[in-house]
Design brief:
106 residues; mainly alpha; SNARE binding
Length: 106
């Protein structure tokens, strides 16, 4: 956990992301806040919507009561982004709306 946090502070978000996935899979609940921050943060190589949702779902399972609303809102945004990306792939078109944090939608 300490290495993941230090990596994030140092700006190595790829390492922090990779470590958070491992810690989440092992059920290390204390890292929920970092998982949430990375899931809601800027795009990282190899981090698709599914990976973001995995980190966010882990955070939702372990977060404090005050964070549930914000994390559920972030989940909704990620879900919309994932559905939009699927629609774009199926139709070859770009939706006429935007989703906060998405780099693929005009």
């Amino acid at each position: 956990e300490a290495i993941a946090r230090e990596a994030a502070v140092a700006g190595d978000l790829q390492l922090a992301f990779d470590l958070c996935l491992v810690l989440a899979r092992k059920g290390h609940g204390l890292v929920w806040d970092l998982c949430a921050a990375i899931a809601r943060g800027p795009a990282i190589e190899n981090m698709d919507v599914g990976s973001r949702k995995q980190l966010l779902s882990f955070a939702l399972c372990h977060c404090d009561d005050e964070s549930i609303g914000d994390l559920l809102h972030a989940w909704k945004d990620l879900d919309m982004q994932g559905q939009s990306e699927s629609l774009m792939m199926l139709t070859g078109t770009t939706p006429k709306f935007t989703v906060e944090g998405s780099s693929n939608i005009a």
